[in-house]
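[stage:ingest] chain + small molecule (zinc ion)
[stage:ingest] validated
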Amino acid sequence: MSAALFCLFLSAVGGCAFFVFVGKLGKNHPLRKDLKALNIDLRDYGFGERFAREAALYEDLFAARVSEQHHDLYRVVASSGEIDARVSGRFAHTADDETCFPAVGDWVMIDRLDDRTGSAIIHHVLPRKSMLVRQSAGLRSSGQVISANIDTIFICMSLNEDFNVRRIERYLAIAWDSGATPVIVLTKADLCADLPYRLSELNEVSIGVDVITCSAAAGTGFDEIESHIEPGKTIAFVGSSGVGKSTIINRLMGRDVLDTQAVREDDGKGRHTTTHRQLLLLPQGGIVIDTPGMRELQIHSANLTKAFEDVEAIAAQCRFSDCSHRTEPGCAIRAAIADGTLSEERFASYNKLQREAVYAGLSSRQRENEKLTRMFGGKSAIKQFRKEIKTKKR
Ligand code: GDP
Ligand code: ZN
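[stage:predict] done
[stage:export] tokens:
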């Protein structure tokens, strides 16, 4: 009995001593970091007042933020750390459409704080303050959420040959539509001979939007980028491949968490092969969301833009779903041009923007395939062509 009491006494003293010890650790002591990881302050991850209020409605559930998505398996950051989670059967059953499902950046309500006995169960997605949606396959598709609750979208464009005001226009339309605030980041200023001219070109489309000029090579513009980042706020970078997004994120992180293009080319693996964390906590506060979907935004931007809804609605009336609008019978586009409902210039511009958008986001291998598709007209034709080559070789 007295032995048991003594043990209790010892552990109480031990516990107190432990807390005193931890309290004395320096702010950046590694042990403190580990301890913090065990008890995460969700506010660092953007759990502001609004989400806290919403979450309080669910008494028996815990709030967590989706940090990664792999099909129907999620990683979520909860107060206990990062754990696996899945939506409940009831959730999947009652979801109206695809956009109801959790996406990276979402705040969700889960049933437990550890996944040792199986994934935690997601019962609700808290109302989003913003979301980026991309068109998914299928005409009647509701679209797919590629990230949620982003406060600021940095639209990156390089000041060299990538510079294209029309593309910025499209990105701006997507960003405003998402509910986030866009900021334009012009990269590689060191490669630009006539910055004032570029800026004047941009003036016309950037009304009400902050424009930052930066150069990773010269180390300029980063203070301005950081001035748009706050603890608890979520940011994302969009823009064509190669404009320097990874370089900026690495710089903000203070270490190389992402492969930059130079590295990617060196290892010959191409750009989307490396997996990395999709939700990054910046050392100075703030959260970066960087999912493959965000990176590929430009591929879908031509679909996303509301600017050409009219053209797409007409094209949907063509007899053949893969109509090229050139010689096919029953082509609604040619009919609309003939009767004046659609101007030839608008259709040309639509075609051009779409080609450009598709082109901008593809790797060189994909570009090669694109070229083949354009040359030979589709996958089956390519297969046929390859077969012919094979038989010829025999
Ligand atoms: P991402 O595909 O948008 O993530 O682009 P990366 O960050 O991988 O950058 C692509 C290439 O541009 C890399 O070789 C970088 O070193 C280079 N780069 C990035 N920023 C700058 C810059 O400010 N100036 C110059 N000259 N090159 C840069
Ligand atoms: Zn047609």
